[in-house]
Each structure stands twice: as structure tokens, then as C-alpha cells.
Specification:
- The chain is of the alpha+beta class.
- It contains eleven helices and 15 strands.
- The strands form four sheets. The protein has a five-stranded antiparallel sheet. A four-stranded antiparallel sheet has the order 9-10-12-11, with helices on one face.
- A hairpin with a 2-residue loop joins strand 2 and strand 3.
- Helix 2 packs across helix 4 and helix 7 packs antiparallel against helix 9.
- The longest helix has 14 residues.
- One of its GO terms (molecular function) is ATPase activator activity.
- One of its GO terms (biological process) is transcription by RNA polymerase II.
- Belongs to the TFB2 family.
- InterPro entries: Tfb2_C (IPR040662), TFIIH_p52/Tfb2 (IPR004598).
- It is found in: Nucleus.
Length: 329
């Protein structure tokens, strides 16, 4: 091609094979179209034909020296077909998006079953398998494993955890609103578990947790030994930089209510004690009561009924004093 029929060729075309890296390292400018690699810049134009273009760095090609003959024109690429929507392929877009959201909450190294998946979702799973987002031992395997790439792409762990991102030491990621909602920009399992000790988790997204502080959640935390001051200190020391500029850092409505919920559990206080009653006279009652009060072991007194309660630890001293009083009297 490119040689006039009336002009006999001076020499037959030569054909040889060599690594494709020569195209890139020989100083020429490579151009690719239609599965053909064309290299210009070194004498006669050369072309490389490759059976598998995607693996061309390791492929040996056939180069034809056309002896200065004509160069075939660049073929026009075929017109691009419009993208086919998932619905036209028999796939449910809502179902696919739901599966992608579920994939973002999966655990690396844990296997998941394909039971209950529709045919369209199984087809989509094979696409993810080809992309390297999930691993299946075989196409017909009933379990799959999300890869690290899938979890990283779905959760977006490469970026900051929120607006202005948390600091490396874990501080500055909590927003508290006056409607008792907590927004924690963190993906730390430890921080999420600490927040769940005194609040109810509503939503959990990659790098964001939404929780609600309620009366029941605070009193459950207090029942487990957590004080209201500890809850307030936790929220204040981890306040987002946006909140840290405010005075006070936490809304007074939140701090006051948390303390009031704690006081609700302090209406009754239980303690062990030893009961003294059946005094013969008011004087005997007052003498023994004053002695127990001076020792700091008096728990309760009722002068009208002449009864008093002392601590178990102070009972031996009060008993000895009472016997001594009766012996002296």
C-alpha cells in the first residue's frame, strides 16, 4: 500500500520483531489508534500490531519498514454509543445503591453470603469482582469478601473526618446542639463506644455518628458509675473547633439538664445501720445521741419516738458507751 503500480519498488519491505519498549525508548513519538501503535521520528514510519493491547509493555510486535512508502490515514473512530442506564440492563438502581452503602459498613476480611440477592444484584456483584472491589474464589461461590479498596472508596477514609477534621490526638470532633443531639465526626470505634455510654446512637455513617442524649441514657450511665461531671467533661474536652470558640463551650441547657437527671437518682440514699430504740427516758436518748453525733456515726434520729440509727462501724463504741452509762447510773 502507498506504492504506485507503475513505479517498481526499489527493495522489498523488511519485516522484523523486537520489544515494544523500543518504540518508547528510541526517541520517537508514539501514537495509538485502532489497536495499531505508530512511531514517528526515526526515518521511515513504523507500525506495531499487538494481539493484546492491554498487555503491550510485555508484548512482541511486528514492525514493517515501508521503505518510505505512503502512510495509511488514521481511521475514524466509531461513533460512541450513549451510555446504557442500569434500568435498561435489567438492574434496579435503588437496589444497587443500597448494596454499595451496605458495602461501606462491611468489615475487611469478613465473608458475606449472597443468599437473598436478586439476579441483577448478583450480576452487579460480578462487575465488582472484575474491578477488584470484592473477592470470590469462583464465580459461583456463595460468599464474597469486600477488599480494602472497596471499603476505602465507599467510606472515604482518605479525607478528613469532618469539617476541619479532628485533631490527631482525637480531640475536637464533637458538636452538641441544644436539642440534645450529638454529632461526632470520627470513625474511631473507641470514641463511638464512649459516646454510646451516655447517649442513644441514631445514625452512623463513615466518619460521622449522630446520637441523642436522653434521660434514660444519662441515668443508665450514672447507674454504671459515670457521673454527670464526667459526661460534661468528655463533651467539653472533645468539642469541635467551631464550638471551642463559644463561651460557654457547651450549651447551658445541656449541662444543667444532665446534672438534674443525676440529681433525680439522689432523692433516696440507702445506707446500712444499727437501730437504737426503747429508751426509758428522753435524757438517756439525748445522751446517747449526742455521743454518737460527736463520733460522727449518727445516721438518723427521731426524738419524738426516741429512736436513732448509727453506722455498723460505730456501733461497738456506742454500745460500750451505753453500757458504761448504765453501770455508772
Amino acid at each position: 500500500p502507498g506504492i504506485h503500480p507503475k513505479t517498481p519498488p526499489q527493495r522489498p519491505p523488511r519485516v522484523w520483531c523486537f520489544p515494544v519498549q523500543d518504540f518508547w525508548g528510541g526517541g520517537g513519538v508514539p501514537k495509538i489508534w485502532g489497536g495499531i501503535l505508530r512511531c514517528e521520528g526515526e526515518g521511515s514510519p513504523k507500525f506495531g500490531f499487538f494481539p493484546k493491547f492491554e498487555a503491550f509493555p510485555k508484548t512482541w510486535g511486528s514492525s514493517h519498514n515501508l521503505g518510505g512508502g505512503g502512510v495509511p490515514k488514521k481511521p475514524r473512530p466509531p461513533p460512541k454509543a450513549p451510555p446504557v442506564p442500569p434500568q435498561a440492563r435489567g438492574m434496579d438502581l435503588v437496589e444497587i445503591l443500597s448494596f454499595l452503602f451496605q458495602l461501606s459498613f462491611s468489615t475487611l476480611g469478613k465473608d458475606y453470603s449472597v443468599e437473598g440477592m436478586s439476579e441483577s444484584l448478583l450480576t452487579f456483584l460480578q462487575h465488582l469482582r472484575e474491578f477488584g472491589l470484592v473477592f470470590q474464589r469462583k464465580r459461583k461461590s456463595r460468599r464474597f469478601y469486600p477488599t480494602r479498596l472497596a471499603i476505602a472508596l465507599a467510606s472515604g477514609t482518605a479525607g478528613p473526618a469532618g469539617p476541619a477534621g479532628p485533631e490527631p490526638d482525637g480531640h475536637g470532633f464533637v458538636l452538641v446542639e441544644t436539642n440534645y443531639r450529638i454529632y461526632a465526626y470520627t470513625d474511631s470505634e473507641l470514641q463511638v463506644a464512649l459516646i454510646a455510654l451516655f447517649s442513644e446512637l441514631l445514625y452512623r455513617f463513615p466518619n460521622l455518628v449522630v446520637a441523642q442524649v436522653t434521660r434514660d441514657s444519662v441515668q443508665a450511665a450514672i447507674a454504671n458509675g459515670i457521673t454527670a461531671d464526667q459526661i460534661i467533661h468528655f463533651l467539653r474536652t472533645r468539642a469541635h473547633p467551631v464550638m471551642a470558640t463559644q463561651t460557654p463551650v457547651l450549651p447551658p441547657t445541656i449541662t444543667d439538664q444532665i446534672r438534674l437527671w443525676e440529681l433525680e437518682r439522689d432523692r433516696l440514699r440507702f445506707s446500712d445501720g444499727v437501730l437504737y430504740n426503747q429508751f426509758l427516758s428522753q435524757v438517756d436518748f439525748e445522751v446517747l445521741r449526742d455521743h454518737a453525733r460527736s463520733l460522727g456515726v449518727l445516721v438518723f434520729e427521731n426524738p419524738g419516738r426516741r429512736l436513732m440509727v448509727v453506722t455498723p462501724g460505730g456501733h461497738p463504741d456506742v454500745k460500750r458507751f451505753w453500757k458504761r452509762q448504765k453501770h455508772n447510773g
